[in-house]
Amino acid sequence: MKTNVKLAGKYFFPSQPEIESNTQQYKEVKAKGHLCKDIALFYQFKTKKNEISSFSVIPDGCFDILFCCGSNKHSAVLWTSPLHRTTQHDFESECDYFGIRFLPEQKVFKLKNSMKELLGKKIPLLDVISLDSSIVEKIGAAKSFYERIVLFETFIKNSASSLNYSLNIVEYSIKKIYSSNGLINIDKLSNETGYSARHLRNKFEEYIGFSPKQFSEIVRFQNSLAMVLHTDNINLLDVVHENGYHDQAHFIKGFKKFAHLTPIQFKEVVSQYPYNKKF
């Protein structure tokens, strides 16, 4: 199931297809109303019995909060975007995991660390975000996917951090990147904001972990991936044209930079998993 944020006629798809394809009982629901400014989607999956589950994730520029529910000891982690396709380990067996994927421009939580320091990691949630620890037990003890969504929505109503000027600049720049489908010139972005390219890079790395150029490439990668996965008999030249690549060779090179596979190889990998089901 694809998740999209529409901005100025363009779409951003923070997708992790190998979670959906390589786990059991996967469900997802897109955030609605005021929540969609900060949250892309809520999702849930179950890991296999008597197995240490692992699967690969790809760059999406987002971070997830992931709760382990239904086990003897409830827990939660901050799960951050990797720099490239990476295998994630250490998921408990036969556990329900409930996740919330936050958009890069989210204003709900302020992290204790620079996001650049946290990329590609799973960190105990309370180590990086100051919040009431009771939410971990409440989410973990909830009986259903939708009960967990309601609990989390209620919790964050009073958790939004105040928008400071630096984040305002990052949010503006991110939306410019979305609306250009990742094709905006960084010098032009610098001129529009009135800040140097170095200042923008520092602020991007602090808040989302990636430089403006890296994030722009991720937006193009994710939008291209959405076309590849959700279009039957895809013609790669259509993807090249739609996403502003110079030619097919440049597109494949850019795709492999993040996925370590060609677009067709990645689609084959996703389709071969036994739990490839839609909610």
TrEMBL record:
- An MF annotation (GO) of this entry: sequence-specific DNA binding
- Pfam families in the cross-refs: DUF6597, HTH_18
**Which chain positions lie within coiled-coil regions?**
none
Answer yes or no on keyword S-adenosyl-L-methionine.
no
What are the UniProt keywords, alphabetically? Answer: DNA-binding, Transcription, Transcription regulation
The answer to whether keyword Metal-binding applies is no
Matching SUPFAM superfamilies, A to Z?
A: Homeodomain-like
Q: Where would I find the HTH araC/xylS-type domain in this sequence?
A: 164-269
Protein name (database record): AraC family transcriptional regulator
